[in-house]
Amino acid sequence: MMAAGGGAGSARSVAWGASALLVAALLLSAPSATEAYDSLDPNGNITIKWDVMQWTPDGYVAVVTMFNYQQFRHIQAPGWQLGWTWAKKEVIWSMVGAQTTEQGDCSKFKGNPPHCCKKDPTIVDLLPGTPYNMQIANCCKAGVINTFNQDPLNAASSFQISVGLAGTTNKTVKLPKNFTLKAPGPGYTCGRAMIVRPTKFFTNDGRRATQALMTWNVTCTYSQFLAQKTPTCCVSLSSFYNDTIVNCPTCSCGCQNNGTSPGSCVNENSPYLQSAIDGPGKWTGQPLVQCTSHMCPIRIHWHVKLNYKEYWRVKVTITNFNYRMNYTQWNLVIQHPNFNNITQLFSFNYKPLTPYGGRINDTAMFWGVKFYNDLLMQAGPLGNAQSELLLRKDSMAFTFDKGWAFPHRVYFNGDNCVMPPPDAYPWLPNASPLTKQPLMLPLLAFWIVLATFLAYA
Length: 457
Known about the structure:
14% of the residues lie in helices and 33% in strands. By secondary structure, the protein is an alpha+beta fold. The model is unreliable at 1-35 and 431-442 (pLDDT under 50). Belongs to the COBRA family.
């Protein structure tokens, strides 16, 4: 018995040990809270490619290009800032299409000093209208990079850099390290530079190919948790079959009297509104929002508008509560199970997203029509954009019951918006059995009594 008990105890110990190891492995392999993975854009990243095009007496000339491979997150004004740390004592002799924010200490150089002597330079894009002799292809957009889905011609940004005091062959060049990307604030985490196969360049007629002397890539991924302490948008709901308007959850993006709010707020009719807009901090990137219960710069409202025999209609409204920000090239991503049956769209552009390999088509990206509503004006009478969607009913799944008609997830400019709790969604008037019993049973009893009375009268 003792032996049997010992064997059972040993088996239990082994089982517990195996379970502990499995749990530990799962915890170690699970993504952290700041992990950049997004299930709606699993492969989204910004890739920075360095192509060494020419060797110089003390270094090289390279073209650096940033490609935005994110489906629905762009880099908006005031644009990107790219930084790194040199591996040796490199300097930047000159740049075309971009510039460093500081020159640094170049006192040891005689004659014409380098463009930058800092160990950790910070690079910014040049502005539109830069003289042509200071431009290269894909430069000079004030650091704005759009998504490939929305504007493929402006989904990359490039500059040329001449590096000195560096290696002069692909065996002696040391790759920069500690890359940082601000777009324009925090949120991106960059990996280390990796040498890859040299980039090939083809002539216009496609009959000849040249290649870079050396190429390395850096991949940067985004995390909303790193970008800001609080969310930046929220969702409200309403429907034709229920008078209840479900507002954004209270304090979705911070509270009015809380230090974690996204910025100070001003009442719409406040006499101090204009001075607050024009005062200090206008260009710090901190929003100045209209005082609301949710304190979000952006609110998305989803209204179930009409019900037809074979179709149903939804109105989507985007409202800007930020007095300091015009959202250019904005985009909206919504997940709903009936999006594979979108029939007609009014005043928005639309593209289906298939994050699950094309097996499920339940995610859609919307953005404004150029020169019409692609600019979402700052808070005020014009600070909104709206559209209506006409969807064919899915005979196998369509229902207005239990909140099915409302979206699962909503993103604005790549940030996940705060949704109301599911139990607060507008319900059908007869959805609750508690509302049926007090109304239907007394009425049914009345008709039974009346029928009985008439039968014996």
